[in-house]
Amino acid sequence: MPEPIVLLDLDSAGIDPAQPCPPDFMQFVYDNSQGGYLTLWSHILAEPDGGARIQKWFDEGLTEYHSRTIKIQMAPPTPEKPSGDYVTEVTYPEGSASPPVNVDVPMVHGDATVGGTLTCTMGNWDNVPTSYAYQWQSDGSSVAAAGGNTYTVDPADAGKSISCVVTATNNAGSTEAPPSNAVLISGGATTQTRGPRR
């Protein structure tokens, strides 16, 4: 008996590889690929460069997922998608009925020196987030005008600990994850000890 196929019809899902890959789609793929390969199908696969186009689009969508393990494969490049008793189709949801739930806390990594760049992962979430907001903190205090998942270490951060709080949002609401790990910035001021006055 053939191996079971978990199939996602990109055309029925309204996915357009000519547009940026939606973050909630990547979350959906991640959730459905943990028990085995998730098979992607589209009429584009029947075109000469179709597989490469979809793979490039998919790889670009993975840039925010860092070290996550996602297992996909392409359906055979024929006009007809796989069907039969051993094929299970899954439907890409248009939104979640519940706000995001944090599964794995975001993590900060990178160059922990003045002028260096730190990056914060989004963490792992349930309930298909559609966007993420990043609030950087220095010794627990919010850093004004520091948004996005990267942060350039300021001279004022020397000797302090930098962390990040990620808020995930979907159509049902927003959820703030617990603070990330704290990264100590090198280059703190040294204290000079004076001898007794005479």
Q: How is the topology of this model organized?
A:
Layout: E1 5-9, H1 23-32, E2 38-41, H2 50-61, E3 72-74, E4 87-90, E5 101-104, E6 108-110, E7 117-120, E8 124-126, E9 131-138, E10 141-142, E11 150-152, E12 161-170, E13 173-176, E14 183-184
Parallel strand pairs: 1-2, 1-4, 2-3
Antiparallel strand pairs: 5-8, 6-7, 7-11, 9-10, 9-12, 12-13, 12-14
Task: Give the gist of this structure.
The protein has 198 residues and is mainly beta.
Helical segment tally?
2
| SSE string, helices as H and strands as E | EHEHEEEEEEEEEEEE
Strand content: 25-35%
Roughly how many Å is the radius of gyration?
A: 22 Å
Total individual domains:
2
Global morphology: elongated
What is the residue-mean pLDDT, rounded to a whole number? 84
Helicity range of the residues? 10-25%
Structural class determined from secondary elements: mainly beta
- Report the strand count: 14
- Give the biggest sheet: 5 strands, antiparallel
pLDDT under 50 segments (min length 5)? Answer: 189-196
Instruction: Report how far the terminal alpha carbons are from each other.
Output: 94 Å
Structure report:
- This protein is mainly beta and 198 residues long.
- It folds into two domains: 5-90, no CATH class; 101-184, Immunoglobulin-like (Sandwich).
- 11% of the residues lie in helices and 30% in strands.
- The protein is built from two helices and 14 strands; from the N terminus they run βαβαββββββββββββ.
- Strands 9, 10, 12, 13 and 14 form a five-stranded antiparallel sheet that branches. A four-stranded parallel sheet has the order 3-2-1-4, with no helix packed on it.
- A hairpin with a 2-residue loop joins strand 9 (131-138) and strand 10 (141-142).
- The longest helix is centred in the first third of the chain and has 12 residues, at 50-61.
- It is elongated.
- The model is unreliable at 189-196 (pLDDT under 50).
